[in-house]
């Protein structure tokens, strides 16, 4: 009985989730923190109607650092070309959260950073493994998402951003 | 399934279909997200490496999270299945069920959750409920949580509930309150200040009936903590102090001594440089929602290790585990970016990270001439707060240099020198401390825009324990989608010639958008897996392993 109920429930919810256009999912309103430790809300994540790369990472996650470092090398070009903004959400908990600020500064990354030390935002976005990167359109809706990062993986991100812009241009 | 779980599912389904005049509207504006992961393994017995015979031969862990969000309302659940739990996970997980489900409403500074939730007060020194699936840890609360933001800059949290204990719940009840105020946001006087200040305080209490026939145990055990965070320009300071009243329990050998903990950290940052110094003292702060709990069970607070979280196999082979009954730790780290186009920085710049950490015992002395230190039913011991104990538990000096050598070739080199007190960290007697060196070289070469090759060479040198190890890893990746990996770990320095074994592994992984699948075949050495200073032992294994994960 327990198993059947579970399966039925999962089926109902997933059939609705997959029948939806993935692009419609707006990022939920969740409390996060600034790097200075002030409480704020995910509603501050916006880019004047232009696409956003929302990257979930942690200071102890090697592929995450690889990904953010790889993007850093081309970020100026990306911004110039597409107006995209990268928002990086560190999921470090009490053990490593103090390392986030020194790491960001030593790498001289020019992204917008937030802390999600209780993983509320991570859970609400269905993030399981790190790195997990979302491409949001100008309405802050999820357009595409990627887990894992390998050499050259940053190209997929900017391609998704360009697809959004192409679609928006066609609409106009 | 418990009646409450059935009622929850029925209520959620009814709500989903009927809470709005039109269910279609509800789904058009509401959104579902979630994820799914399963890991399963086929085990072969291998007496040479100590891989036991697994009667089931095939073991599987799986979970699926579903979250529904509609305006200010959200609800979710997690289905978990362990048929049976993978080796290294507690067999009390065996079975399946929905141990996590919640409703949440959040509007205009009023945020209420009923059902399960994860929460922490401050840095978690007196309270943190969290999940770490890879370690088999999930101490989710089941009860009610209220978060209030009466004005910007003030946050108040209140919690009541029981903790999850595998597919059961703790008998102890937790009640707690936490408040934090950002002075710059609340007071006009501070609004223009360049110094950001926030202060916070928290209190938590556990109720558990005393049925001990021998001792009179406190039924209500409370803990409180205060914290301060200052930030001015490039400098940040933070600290938290916690105190717990006497709490005789299985983990402290039933002593009546109160506990306390202090954590302080200071950091300095500027473009290209980050420095951090931290210190921590813990004395008798193991806090569980049941007195009899041990291991990783029913932990109320979170006391992470103040040591570097290493990521390479050999630098992470001897990890430190927090000693909640007493430790004194220090850590310092410098991250520096040597500018590009300089003599030392090279054409592309160089990142250097230097880290040192050490953990010692706290000073302990007998309370009188006739009582042994830590004797059951007594006040345990005396301890001078700022007196560091002589015994070293752990020491780690490491340096990592990352440098891009050419447009296509990246490199990373790590050296680590460590001391590991096996008796204290693993709870044994009679072993000598393990001292060793680890060297790691990682090279990553982008063959063309579609494919890359990565290699890792690691060497661990020690005269103690299992002696020297060497490792080589080769990974070919294509379009950041396909991953082919070959690993060989060779314990060539083992004193026992029969145990000079190659632990080889072959794996292939495929990753597309938010979906990932990997297949691995080979031998896994026995060891400890740690995340956030919490660890679990993994027995040796030999066989096939598959991992599938997906997010939507």
Describe this structure in words.
The complex is a heterodimer of chains A (172) and B (552). Chain A has 172 residues and is an alpha/beta fold. Chain A has one domain (33-171): Glutaredoxin, CATH 3.40.30.10. Chain A is 41% helix and 19% strand. Chain A has six helices and seven strands. Chain A has a five-stranded mixed sheet, with helices on one face. Chain A starts with a helix and ends with a helix. With 552 residues, chain B is mainly β. Among the domains of chain B are: 108-275 and 289-303, no CATH class; 305-456, no CATH class. Chain B has helices at residues 3-18, 23-29, 183-186, 188-191, 422-426; strands spanning 31-43, 58-70, 73-82, 95-107, 110-117, 131-132, 137-138, 141-148, 154-165, 168-169, 173-182, 195-207, 220-232, 235-244, 259-270, 273-283, 327-338, 350-362, 388-404, 409-420, 434-446, 451-462, 469-478, 482-490, 502-512, 515-524, 527-531, 534-538, 541-551. In chain B, the strands form three sheets. Chain B has a 24-stranded antiparallel β-barrel. In chain B, strands 6-7 form a two-stranded antiparallel sheet. The longest helix of chain B has 16 residues, at 3-18. Chain B starts with a helix and ends with a strand. The model of chain B is unreliable at 17-22 (pLDDT under 50). Classes of the chains: A alpha/beta (172), B mainly beta (552). Chains A and B meet through helix 1, helix 4, helix 5 and strand 7 of A and helix 1, strand 1, strand 2, strand 3 and strand 4 of B.
């Amino acid at each position: 009985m327990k198993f059947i109920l579970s399966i039925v429930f999962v089926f109902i919810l997933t059939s609705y989730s997959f029948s939806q256009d993935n692009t419609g999912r707006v990022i939920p309103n969740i409390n996060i923190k600034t790097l200075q430790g002030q409480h704020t809300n995910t509603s501050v994540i916006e880019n004047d109607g232009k696409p956003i790369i929302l990257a979930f990472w942690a200071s102890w996650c090697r592929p995450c650092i690889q990904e953010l470092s790889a993007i850093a090398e081309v970020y100026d070009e990306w911004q110039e070309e597409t107006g995209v903004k990268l928002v990086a959400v560190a999921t470090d908990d009490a053990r490593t959260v103090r390392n986030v600020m020194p790491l960001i500064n030593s790498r001289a990354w020019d992204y917008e950073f937030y802390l999600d030390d209780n993983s509320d935002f991570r859970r609400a976005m269905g993030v399981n493994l790190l790195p997990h990167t979302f491409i949001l359109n100008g309405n802050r809706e999820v357009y595409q998402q990627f887990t894992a990062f390998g050499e050259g993986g940053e190209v997929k991100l900017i391609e998704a951003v360009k697809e959004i812009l192409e679609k928006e241009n066609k609409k106009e | 399934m418990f009646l409450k779980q059935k009622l929850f599912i029925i209520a959620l389904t009814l709500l989903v279909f009927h809470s709005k005049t039109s269910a279609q509207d509800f789904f058009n504006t509401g959104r579902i997200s979630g994820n799914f992961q399963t890991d399963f393994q086929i085990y072969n017995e291998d007496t040479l490496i100590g891989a036991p015979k697994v009667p089931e031969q095939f073991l599987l862990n799986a979970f699926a999270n579903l979250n529904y969000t509609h305006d200010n309302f959200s609800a979710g659940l997690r289905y978990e299945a362990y048929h049976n739990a993978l080796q290294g996970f507690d067999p009390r997980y065996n079975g399946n069920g929905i141990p996590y489900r919640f409703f949440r409403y959040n509007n205009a500074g009023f945020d209420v959750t009923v059902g399960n939730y994860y929460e922490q007060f401050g840095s978690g020194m007196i309270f943190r409920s969290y999940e770490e699936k890879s370690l088999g840890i999930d101490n989710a609360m089941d009860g009610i949580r209220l978060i209030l933001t009466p004005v910007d800059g003030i946050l108040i949290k209140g919690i009541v509930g029981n903790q999850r204990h595998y597919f059961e719940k703790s008998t102890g009840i937790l009640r707690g309150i936490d408040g934090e105020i950002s002075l710059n946001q609340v007071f006009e006087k501070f609004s223009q200040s360049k110094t950001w200040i926030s202060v916070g305080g928290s209190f938590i209490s556990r109720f558990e009936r005393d049925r001990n026939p021998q001792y009179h145990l406190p039924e209500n055990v409370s803990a409180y903590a205060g914290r301060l965070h200052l930030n001015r320009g490039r400098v940040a300071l933070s600290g938290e102090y916690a105190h717990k009243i006497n709490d005789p329990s299985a983990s402290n050998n039933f002593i009546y001594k109160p506990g306390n903990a202090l954590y302080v950290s200071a950091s300095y940052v500027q473009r290209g440089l980050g420095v951090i110094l931290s210190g921590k003292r813990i004395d008798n702060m193991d806090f569980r929602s049941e007195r009899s709990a041990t291991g990783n069970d029913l932990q109320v607070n979170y006391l992470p290790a103040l040591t570097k979280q290493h990521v390479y196999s050999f630098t992470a082979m001897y990890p430190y585990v927090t000693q909640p009954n007493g430790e004194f730790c220090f850590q310092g780290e410098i991250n520096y970016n040597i500018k590009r186009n300089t003599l030392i920085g090279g054409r592309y710049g160089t990142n250097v990270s230097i880290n040192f950490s050490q953990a010692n015992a706290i000073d302990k002395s007998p309370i009188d001439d006739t009582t042994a230190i830590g004797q059951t039913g007594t006040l345990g011991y005396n301890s001078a707060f700022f007196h560091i104990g002589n015994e070293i538990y752990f020491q780690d000096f490491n340096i990592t240099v990352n440098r891009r050598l050419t447009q296509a070739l990246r490199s990373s080199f790590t050296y680590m020198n460590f001391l590991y007190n096996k008796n204290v960290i693993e709870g044994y007697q009679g072993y000598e401390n393990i001292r060793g060196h680890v060297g790691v070289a990682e090279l990553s070469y982008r063959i063309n825009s579609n494919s890359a090759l990565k290699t890792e060479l690691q060497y661990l040198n020690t005269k103690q324990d299992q002696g020297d190890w060497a490792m080589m890893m080769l990974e070919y990746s294509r379009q950041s989608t396909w991953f082919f990996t070959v690993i060989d770990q060779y314990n060539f320095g083992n004193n026992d010639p029969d145990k000079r074994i190659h632990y080889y592994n072959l794996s292939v992984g495929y990753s597309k958008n938010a979906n990932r699948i990997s297949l691995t075949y080979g031998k896994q050495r026995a060891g400890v897996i740690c995340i956030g200073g919490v660890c679990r032992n993994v027995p040796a294994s030999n066989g096939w392993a598959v991992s599938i994960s997906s997010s939507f």
